[in-house]
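Record 1 of the preview.
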Amino acid sequence: MGWIEPSGRLAEGRKRLPLDGPVYLTQRDIRQLQLAKGAIAAGWKLLLERRGVETDSVARVHLAGAFGNYVSRTGARRIGLVELPDEKVEPVGNTALLGAKLALFATEQEIHEIAELSGRIEHVSLAADPSFHDVFLDEMRFPDR
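->
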């Protein structure tokens, strides 16, 4: 609708955007969205790069937690958060709670499989990546429409 510039600034010198009755969207609200979007999109981009994977070859992305359940996939793509078609993005709910339940009630064989899988998991510190800051800043921008 042209109300927000790609930089995140409110267009036409507006101070806030009316949403419904006394509810407004402010410059600070938009900045918070940009920070979250920039971090998530930068993490995604750097992890794909680290693995040598092109976005087009990704079959499916699972979005976890309340974020994954409530974010609009179309809106996420429109602001540049996710660069995949809606059918490749699947909300999966509270995966931490589900994982804890599965581990709690797991059979011995399943416990062995969980242990094997956990041995293949690698922690990646995005903050330690020398290009994170630059990618993060680039990803804070909204796409030109």
